[in-house]
Structure formats: C-alpha cells, structure tokens
C-alpha cells in the first residue's frame, strides 16, 4: 500500500484531544466495538444474523503529558476511569489472551522520563519523517525532519495469533503469484469494475496489452504486507487486506521495535515488562535481501534498482533506510525517479532492456503508482506502460498489482475459489480462517442487511492509500443511492464485515507530546516472494508493522495523522 504523508504537526491537534481528520494509509475496517452482536456469524455464504446490535459506546476523552523540555499542556496524567480490566479472550488455537499492559499505575514522572528518552532515541536513530509545514521537507533529505509518531509502549498481542500470521504469510505469497498468472481470472473478475472505475480501468488496459503481446514475467518479485485485526467477539485474527504495491514502513517499523526494546531494558523493571517479549523485526533487511536477489537473478552487475517515488515524499526516510541497506549490505545501487521523470528519460531497447538516462535498470520497485493522484497526466501512464513492457523485474508487475485489489480479495473469499489456485487443503483452511466476511454489491440479501445495520459493514472502493472507505450511516446512504440510480456504479465497491477489535488504553506520542487515549491496533505482516521461472528463490515472512490509533476514529494511518507506529508485546 502506498503513502500520502501528512505532517505529524497537524493543525487538527488541540490541547484537549487528538482530533485527527486527514486521509490515511491505515486501511481500517474498525473502530471501538459498538456492542455485542450475539448469535451473529459472518461468513462468505452470507449467513449473518444481526438481531441484537447495540448502539455504539461513548467515545472517551483524552489529554496530554509533557516531556522534560516541553511546556506541560495538562495538569497531570489522569487514570482512565471508564476503562475496565481487559477481559480474557480465546484465540484461534483456544489459548486465552492475557490482559493488556496496565498503564494506569505508571507514575507521571516516569512517563515523562520515558517520553523524553524516546524522543532522543528517535532523533538519534533516524525514526523520522518529513514535516509538511517545512516547504522542502518532501524533496530535500535532512530538511524539516520530525520524529515519526509512535506509541510509547508496545501493544500486547497473543503469541498464538502472531505465529498464525507469520505462518500464513508464505501461503498468501504463493496465492498472489498463482493468481497473477491467471490472466483470464483477473480480467473476468474485474470486468464490471472496469466499466465504472476509471483508474482500475487504466490498470486493466495495461494488463490486457501485456496479455495481447504474450508478455511473461520470468522473474517475479513480490514484497507484500497482509493486514489484520483481532476481532474481540469471534476471537479470530481477520484479514483486512493484502497489499501488493508499495507496502510501506519496512524501515521505520524495525526502528520502533528497537525503540521499545531499548525503553524496556531501562524501564522494564519499573513497569513490569520484559524486553524479550518484543519479537525481532527484520523487515528492512529482508526486503533489501529480496531486492538484491532479484537484482542478482537479472544477471547484470552494472544494472541499477529503480525506486519509483512521488514528486514530494515526506516518508522518504523509510525508503532511504531500505535503499541504504541495499547498498551497504549487498552493494546494489538505487536511483529514485518519479513517473514523469521516467516518461522523460526512459526507453526500451529492442531486446526489452529498460534504460533510464542511458543506465540499465534491473529491478523496478514501486513506492508510487498505487493511486489516481499518482497519474495527473498521460506522461505517468506512459511511464507505467513502458516499465511493464520491459524485461526489468517489476515489484509489483501489473498482474501482481491487480491481484491485490479489493475486488480480487472479495472474489478469493468465495466458496471453493481458493481451490482454483492452491492444492494443499491445510493451507486453504488456514487462509480461509483469516478471511472476514466479503461480498459484492450484486448480492441483494447482504445489501438489505447492510442497509438495516450499516454499522456492521464497511464499503470499500478499489483504492490503496487509505481514507477511501465508507462507514456507518454513509453506508446506508450510498447503498440506497445506488439502488435508486440503478447504475453499474456498485461494481466499484465491495462490502466487508466490520471488525471490532479490543480497545486498550495507551500513550501516543506525536510532535513531542504524549497523548493518552483508548486505542485499537492493526498488525501488518510482511512477506517476500521471488521466483525465476519454476524455481522459488524466496518465500517467507519477513517482519511486521504494528499501527495503533485512537478507537474513536474510523480511519487510521501513520502517514496521514490517524495512527502511530507501534510494536507488539507477546503474551
């Protein structure tokens, strides 16, 4: 998934609440649980009972605490009175989840010391982003840096669910590769969407052209991230989406894990936490290794890795961590170019070689190109088509990109659909257990139920980057509008079961201020897949991204001001 980074120094922040309003890269399908939905089962056969939905619970207040060298905006850290002790939860394996980290008893002075040390650590170790309020911060490295928003303490997470998420990552990698090879499936599944979604239509046109010229990708590289939430009612780890393009934060996510480990080594005895319970996070190393091996398979030591970026990139340091690791550990050189620059300077030789400014490109790694705003003119579309026609390794190829769309996710959740691509019944069962309810909008029964109980559903367009989903009463309004119009616009959306994770109190640190609020978290597990013809070179889980956001927000994203970077504390 891509990034549209907004400054952590958001004008929407006030001295009394973290009022986050911008678009997001946190593809959240959840907020605070609106109440128990008794006897309700979401399934892909649409057997769903919605009889006893309660009204949403009251949103909780919040406040700030200050670090050593800041002006304190609140008088003191006040315990959250309305948050009961976390109740035990059973996991998919039947193991109970222990209570969340108790932050109520942490001394105010100790919190201030931890915040101060965390800010120093972040500044010294490169846990930074560009500040949008500084004019050149998205273009010139070192200008206008500010610490990335982060959680002061890691979020507890059941070890059994963590192991499951890691275990299914290679299976999802293999699934994406198999789906990408079935051009007819992709074209048929997206045929109605193509008619009503101009952006997806252009992507499908490129894919169609590749099919017409029999363009094959002998070397296929995927750097994915599968995002999950732990549903409080069903006790299941449910997949929100699988990102196949621009899976962000492999660099900064590692640093947050290191930050939390460092804090617990110093303060763990005082707050009863063990730094060894934070799992190692090697996502940036693993992503760099996968890119390096793809570069090796291309077999030209003088060729470069091209990183496709946005004209202004305030999350450039996450990308630079990856590029620096690639150079220092594997001696592979990268260049950063926008789609417009590629259109201007790129060319393809008769043998398919991609040249950029006269230099051969071995691997194209997309950190842009996932959203309509990345294609403001025909120049950007020409660049995308040019790269796709070349013999360079694409990460992702157009078929991998389409395989990660919401519509394909919904199609794969249909009964017996996984069996089209996978043979191992145990693998299929593991994936299916992670699927939330997913439906197309041509299902009249589920549409009726969504209109009756819109709080139980999320309406999703075919977009990456966050901030596009439809929630609550807006679901009902849009479904009724589509019914009245009778157009094919419904093909631009899917419906998804809304996930209600457990809410926990936590400390969120943004622009040097510590903010205490009720929060929910989303776990993203990275995966790398590299194949050369019939030889699978890499297929593995490779690190994780934890994002935590205030529970009162529908959307959530680190890059856009909704959420903060986090790590997990296994229990």
Automatic annotation (TrEMBL):
<dbReference type="InterPro" id="IPR016185">
    <property type="entry name" value="PreATP-grasp_dom_sf"/>
</dbReference>
<comment type="pathway">
    <text>Sulfur metabolism; glutathione biosynthesis; glutathione from L-cysteine and L-glutamate: step 2/2.</text>
</comment>
<feature type="binding site">
    <location>
        <position position="547"/>
    </location>
    <ligand>
        <name>substrate</name>
    </ligand>
</feature>
<keyword id="KW-0317">Glutathione biosynthesis</keyword>
<keyword id="KW-0150">Chloroplast</keyword>
<dbReference type="GO" id="GO:0043295">
    <property type="term" value="F:glutathione binding"/>
</dbReference>
<feature type="binding site">
    <location>
        <begin position="496"/>
        <end position="499"/>
    </location>
    <ligand>
        <name>ATP</name>
    </ligand>
</feature>
<dbReference type="Pfam" id="PF03917">
    <property type="entry name" value="GSH_synth_ATP"/>
</dbReference>
<feature type="binding site">
    <location>
        <position position="319"/>
    </location>
    <ligand>
        <name>substrate</name>
    </ligand>
</feature>
<dbReference type="InterPro" id="IPR005615">
    <property type="entry name" value="Glutathione_synthase"/>
</dbReference>
<keyword id="KW-0460">Magnesium</keyword>
<feature type="binding site">
    <location>
        <begin position="558"/>
        <end position="559"/>
    </location>
    <ligand>
        <name>substrate</name>
    </ligand>
</feature>
<dbReference type="GO" id="GO:0004363">
    <property type="term" value="F:glutathione synthase activity"/>
</dbReference>
<dbReference type="InterPro" id="IPR014042">
    <property type="entry name" value="Glutathione_synthase_a-hlx"/>
</dbReference>
<feature type="binding site">
    <location>
        <begin position="367"/>
        <end position="370"/>
    </location>
    <ligand>
        <name>substrate</name>
    </ligand>
</feature>
<feature type="binding site">
    <location>
        <position position="225"/>
    </location>
    <ligand>
        <name>substrate</name>
    </ligand>
</feature>
<feature type="binding site">
    <location>
        <position position="406"/>
    </location>
    <ligand>
        <name>ATP</name>
    </ligand>
</feature>
<feature type="binding site">
    <location>
        <begin position="460"/>
        <end position="469"/>
    </location>
    <ligand>
        <name>ATP</name>
    </ligand>
</feature>
<feature type="domain" description="Glutathione synthase substrate-binding">
    <location>
        <begin position="304"/>
        <end position="403"/>
    </location>
</feature>
<keyword id="KW-0436">Ligase</keyword>
<dbReference type="GO" id="GO:0005524">
    <property type="term" value="F:ATP binding"/>
</dbReference>
<feature type="binding site">
    <location>
        <position position="522"/>
    </location>
    <ligand>
        <name>ATP</name>
    </ligand>
</feature>
<feature type="binding site">
    <location>
        <begin position="245"/>
        <end position="248"/>
    </location>
    <ligand>
        <name>substrate</name>
    </ligand>
</feature>
<feature type="binding site">
    <location>
        <position position="471"/>
    </location>
    <ligand>
        <name>ATP</name>
    </ligand>
</feature>
<dbReference type="GO" id="GO:0000287">
    <property type="term" value="F:magnesium ion binding"/>
</dbReference>
<feature type="binding site">
    <location>
        <position position="549"/>
    </location>
    <ligand>
        <name>ATP</name>
    </ligand>
</feature>
<feature type="binding site">
    <location>
        <position position="555"/>
    </location>
    <ligand>
        <name>ATP</name>
    </ligand>
</feature>
<feature type="binding site">
    <location>
        <position position="241"/>
    </location>
    <ligand>
        <name>Mg(2+)</name>
    </ligand>
</feature>
<keyword id="KW-0547">Nucleotide-binding</keyword>
<dbReference type="Pfam" id="PF03199">
    <property type="entry name" value="GSH_synthase"/>
</dbReference>
<feature type="binding site">
    <location>
        <position position="464"/>
    </location>
    <ligand>
        <name>Mg(2+)</name>
    </ligand>
</feature>
<dbReference type="InterPro" id="IPR014049">
    <property type="entry name" value="Glutathione_synthase_N_euk"/>
</dbReference>
<keyword id="KW-0479">Metal-binding</keyword>
<dbReference type="InterPro" id="IPR037013">
    <property type="entry name" value="GSH-S_sub-bd_sf"/>
</dbReference>
<feature type="binding site">
    <location>
        <position position="241"/>
    </location>
    <ligand>
        <name>ATP</name>
    </ligand>
</feature>
<keyword id="KW-0934">Plastid</keyword>
<dbReference type="GO" id="GO:0005829">
    <property type="term" value="C:cytosol"/>
</dbReference>
<comment type="similarity">
    <text>Belongs to the eukaryotic GSH synthase family.</text>
</comment>
<keyword id="KW-0809">Transit peptide</keyword>
<keyword id="KW-0067">ATP-binding</keyword>
<protein>
    <recommendedName>
        <fullName>Glutathione synthetase</fullName>
        <ecNumber>6.3.2.3</ecNumber>
    </recommendedName>
</protein>
<dbReference type="GO" id="GO:0009507">
    <property type="term" value="C:chloroplast"/>
</dbReference>
């Amino acid at each position: 998934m891509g990034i549209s980074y907004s400054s952590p120094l958001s004008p929407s922040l006030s001295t009394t609440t973290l009022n986050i309003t911008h678009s997001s890269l946190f593809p959240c399908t959840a907020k605070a649980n609106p109440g128990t939905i008794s006897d309700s089962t979401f399934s892909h056969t649409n057997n769903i009972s919605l009889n006893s939905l309660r009204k949403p619970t009251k949103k909780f207040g919040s406040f700030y605490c200050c670090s050593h060298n800041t002006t304190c905006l609140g008088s003191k850290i006040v315990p959250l009175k309305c948050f009961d002790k976390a109740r035990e939860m059973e996991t998919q394996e039947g193991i109970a989840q222990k209570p969340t980290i108790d932050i109520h008893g942490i001394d105010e002075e100790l919190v201030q010391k931890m915040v101060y040390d965390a800010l120093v650590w972040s500044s010294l170790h490169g846990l930074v982003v560009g500040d949008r309020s500084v004019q050149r911060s998205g273009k010139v490295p070192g200008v206008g840096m500010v610490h990335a928003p982060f959680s002061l303490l890691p979020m507890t997470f059941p070890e059994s669910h963590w192991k499951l998420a890691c275990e299914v990552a290679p299976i999802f990698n293999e699934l994406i590769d198999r789906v990408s090879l079935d051009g007819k499936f992709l074209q048929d599944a997206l045929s109605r969407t193509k008619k009503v979604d101009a952006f997806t239509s252009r992507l499908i046109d490129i894919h169609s052209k590749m099919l017409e010229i029999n363009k094959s990708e002998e070397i296929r590289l995927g750097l994915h991230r599968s995002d999950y939430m732990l549903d409080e009612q069903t006790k299941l780890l449910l997949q929100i989406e699988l990102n196949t393009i621009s899976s962000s934060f492999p660099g900064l996510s590692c640093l947050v894990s290191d930050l939390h480990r460092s804090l617990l080594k110093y303060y763990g005895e005082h707050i009863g936490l063990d730094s060894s319970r934070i799992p190692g996070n090697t996502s940036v190393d693993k992503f760099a290794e996968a890119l390096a091996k793809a570069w090796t398979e291309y077999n030209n030591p003088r060729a470069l890795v091209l990183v496709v970026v946005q004209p202004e990139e305030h999350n450039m340091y996450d990308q630079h961590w990856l590029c620096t690791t690639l150079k220092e550990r594997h001696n592979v050189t990268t260049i950063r170019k926008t789609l417009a620059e590629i259109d201007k300077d790129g060319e393809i030789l008769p043998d398919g070689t991609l040249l950029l400014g006269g230099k051969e490109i071995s691997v194209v790694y997309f950190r842009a190109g996932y959203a309509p705003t990345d294609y403001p003119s025909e120049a950007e579309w020409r660049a995308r088509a040019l790269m796709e026609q070349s013999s360079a390794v694409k990460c992702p190829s157009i078929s991998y990109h389409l395989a990660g769309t919401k519509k394909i996710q919904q199609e794969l959740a249909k009964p017996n659909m996984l069996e089209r691509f996978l043979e191992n019944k145990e693998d299929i069962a593991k994936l299916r257990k992670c699927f939330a309810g997913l439906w197309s909008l041509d299902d009249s029964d589920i549409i009726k139920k969504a209109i009756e109980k819109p709080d139980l559903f999320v309406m999703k367009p075919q977009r990456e980057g966050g901030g596009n989903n439809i929630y609550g009463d807006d679901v009902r309004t849009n479904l009724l509008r589509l019914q009245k119009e009778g157009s094919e616009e419904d093909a631009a959306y899917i419906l998804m079961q809304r996930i209600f994770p457990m809410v926990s109190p936590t400390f969120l640190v943004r622009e040097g201020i510590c903010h205490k609020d009720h929060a929910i978290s989303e776990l993203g597990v990275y995966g790398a897949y590299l194949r050369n013809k019939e030889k699978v070179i890499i297929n593995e889980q490779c690190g994780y991204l934890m994002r935590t956001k205030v529970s009162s927000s529908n959307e959530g994203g680190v890059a856009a001001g909704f959420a903060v970077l986090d790590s997990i504390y296994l229990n």
